């Protein structure tokens, strides 16, 4: 029995952590021959031995055939290819199926998550932050779900950056089906698909909360774009906290149910962020910043570039500033100021919020405390 099949069979054995299971796999491979006689000697009880023996032969064969195809790989806990960041989390997956570019999974990653039901506000800022973080040198990691997840993946691809999708199903059963083409585009764009399930495994309700631990585990931090208080997105935030990852949340409009989850996270101590640069600065050290085009100012400091419409920008405060107040302070007609404000927003200098605009500034003063999710 080859090592890959031993690993796939061990995947279905319950009651073993990844470290113990991977140790048993190595011992079986080292001895060679048929593994069944070794199972009891290696500490597996009767139920676990039965689980090993009765692994679905069709699923095993399909996965082994899939692994023979180019750009498909099996990573086992503790081996060289296995992501180092996952080694430190509780309940690490024993194996990972990887399709696409394995280097994408090894790059500095930011997880971006949010609700499947989203508002125009969430759609806009998810795309904006994903684009900005790509320009800052990060790979965008999410779950390929409907809503905010897919918006972030598409924005990363449009920015010619890397993106990783962690699935709650086997990689031969991409879910949702509407995103099969998006999954193909992720691979074509130099990204990767990742799953802890055998390639033929169907999407099951309990798979999706569990895959969230991998999304956060692979990442340096988690950005929550938009979420209600009952959203499964908060599960990812909980995992991030348990794993020692930074949690970032976007503020939204008061009274909007889709912002109640992010506001709650901020109240609990998550970083309030209004621009990608704040995330990059907080995570900071040692990252290679990609060169930006002259029209991209997301990760540039004010000292490095000429301020556009400085006369208008100077009159947008750190607190919400109505458009008519900006126009009055600048001494310019409101229609002209509106056009300039839109350009400043698109360039990343200000953010549109209910009631007007705010100047984007560093959020380093926001202190992280324990987030109880």
UniProtKB/TrEMBL annotation:
Residues 1-64 form the Smf/DprA SAM domain. InterPro entries: DprA, DprA_SAM, DprA_WH, DrpA_SLOG, WH-like_DNA-bd_sf. Residues 75-283 form the Smf/DprA SLOG domain. One of its GO terms (biological process) is DNA-mediated transformation. SUPFAM superfamilies: MCP/YpsA-like. It comes from the Bacteria. Gene3D superfamilies: 3.40.50.450, Winged helix-like DNA-binding domain superfamily/Winged helix DNA-binding domain (1.10.10.10). It holds the Pfam family SAM_SMF. Residues 302-356 form the DprA winged helix domain. Belongs to the DprA/Smf family. PANTHER family: PROTEIN SMF. This is DNA-protecting protein DprA.
């Amino acid at each position: 029995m080859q090592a890959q099949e031993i690993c796939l069979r061990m995947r279905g054995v319950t009651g073993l952590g990844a470290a113990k299971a991977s140790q048993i796999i190595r011992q079986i491979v080292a001895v060679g021959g048929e593994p069944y006689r070794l199972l009891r000697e290696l500490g597996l009880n009767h139920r676990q031995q039965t689980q090993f023996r009765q692994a679905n032969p069709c699923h095993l064969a399909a996965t082994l055939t899939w692994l023979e195809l180019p750009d498909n790989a099996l990573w086992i806990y503790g081996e060289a290819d296995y992501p180092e960041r996952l080694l430190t989390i509780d309940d690490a997956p024993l194996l990972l199926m990887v399709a696409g570019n394995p280097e994408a999974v090894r790059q500095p990653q930011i997880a971006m998550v949010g609700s499947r039901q989203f508002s125009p506000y969430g759609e806009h800022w998810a795309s904006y932050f994903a684009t900005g973080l790509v320009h800052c040198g990060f790979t965008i990691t999410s779950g390929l779900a409907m809503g905010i997840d897919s918006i972030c993946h598409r924005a990363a691809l449009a920015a010619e950056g890397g993106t990783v999708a962690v699935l709650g199903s086997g990689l031969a059963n991409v879910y949702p089906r509407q995103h099969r083409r998006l999954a193909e585009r992720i691979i074509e764009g130099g990204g990767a698909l990742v799953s802890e399930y055998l390639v033929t495994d169907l999407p099951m309700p309990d798979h999706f909360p569990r895959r969230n631990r991998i999304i956060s585990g692979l990442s340096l931090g988690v950005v929550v774009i938009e979420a209600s208080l009952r959203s499964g997105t908060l599960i990812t935030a909980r995992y991030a906290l348990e794993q020692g990852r930074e949690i970032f949340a976007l503020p939204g409009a008061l009274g909007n149910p889709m912002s109640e989850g992010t506001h709650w996270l901020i109240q609990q101590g998550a970083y309030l962020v209004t621009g990608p640069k704040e995330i990059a600065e907080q995570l900071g050290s040692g990252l290679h910043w990609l060169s930006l085009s002259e029209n991209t100012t997301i990760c540039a400091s004010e000292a490095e570039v000429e301020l556009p419409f400085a006369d208008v920008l100077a009159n947008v405060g750190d607190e919400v500033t109505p458009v008519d107040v900006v126009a009055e302070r600048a001494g310019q007609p409101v229609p002209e100021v509106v056009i300039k404000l839109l350009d400043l927003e698109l360039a990343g200098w200000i953010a549109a919020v209910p009631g007007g605009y705010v100047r984007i500034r560093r959020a380093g003063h926001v202190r992280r405390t324990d987030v109880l999710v």
